[in-house]
Amino acid sequence: MIPNSSITQQIYSSNETLPDTSERLRTILIALYLINLAGGTLGVIMMSHQLFQRRSQSVMTIIIISLLVLHTLMLLSIPFRLSYYILQEWKFGRFTCKLASAIIYLHMYTTFMFYVAIIIIRLLRLEFRKCYTTTWVGAVWLVGALVVTPVLLSHYGTSKTYNPSECFQFHKEIQEVPMVITNYCLAGILVAVCAVLTVIQLSVICRLAVKYWPDINSHVEFRAQAKSFFFILVTLVCFMPHHVFRVYYIQNCHLDKDHKLLPYNEIFLALTAMCCLDMLCFIAGIAH
């Protein structure tokens, strides 16, 4: 039989550990968003300055400008998130909460689409006229702004009741069948596309390395393919962990009565926003 004093001590230790863990996770979350905000803002400003100086109108420039706009919209939502995580209270209303929550997901998937476009264009050496590129990029923006965003805002976070002082806690709805199917499909598509492109890109790089060895860095073709692999690395580092954990989160959400998994889900979501640091890599010459 365990003495009463031991039981009391164990309960006290357990209760003391949970707040400490929660506080550490909140600190990590704040640090990630501060890095995103500082690095992303610097990258957007510097890249915008370079594009203004070059005045280039190539296909890649049009896509990069779209990425700049995407990153800017996402960066504008970060101060709202930081305010919530620092103050531990949401002060901006339910619609702003839904909008800030939707922006990070729209940013993630639209950025992924543009990354895939860049990789495929370079892999297949496609050449588009400026008008064609502008048309399909404009179509992506129109669908996102006029279809996806209104649908997301009108349905996201509306079927359940939430505390007005809380935000980014739509965990109750993730257990619904349509949301489960949608999340599984998005995760499956992203993982499959990323896996296929990784294998193809690595095989192309290896073939070119053998072909041009030992002066591989002096060949434009090899450097272009190596730079394309940068976008795959960003996807693997920033997007893949979130979707792998998302599957685990959905499967175990109904068992998570104390919402212990929720902070981890938010941390992986914050990691997806780190793709906005890609502009600093552009400036450094890693990718352009």
Automatic annotation (TrEMBL):
GO molecular function terms listed in the Swiss-Prot or TrEMBL record: G protein-coupled receptor activity; oxysterol binding
Gene3D superfamilies reported for this sequence: Rhodopsin 7-helix transmembrane proteins
Membrane-spanning ranges: 28-47, 59-82, 102-124, 136-156, 181-208, 229-248, 268-287
Highest taxon listed in the record's lineage: Eukaryota
Stored InterPro entries: GP183-like, GPCR_Rhodpsn, GPCR_Rhodpsn_7TM
Domain G-protein coupled receptors family 1 profile intervals: 39-248
Membrane topology: Multi-pass membrane protein
GO cellular component: membrane
One Pfam family in the UniProt entry: 7tm_1
Signal peptide: none
Keywords annotated in UniProt: G-protein coupled receptor, Membrane, Receptor, Transducer, Transmembrane, Transmembrane helix
Places the protein is found: Membrane
Cross-referenced PROSITE patterns: G_PROTEIN_RECEP_F1_2
PANTHER family, sorted: G PROTEIN-COUPLED RECEPTOR 141B, G-PROTEIN COUPLED RECEPTOR
Protein name: G-protein coupled receptors family 1 profile domain-containing protein
Organism: Falco tinnunculus
High-level lineage: Eukaryota, Metazoa, Chordata, Craniata, Vertebrata
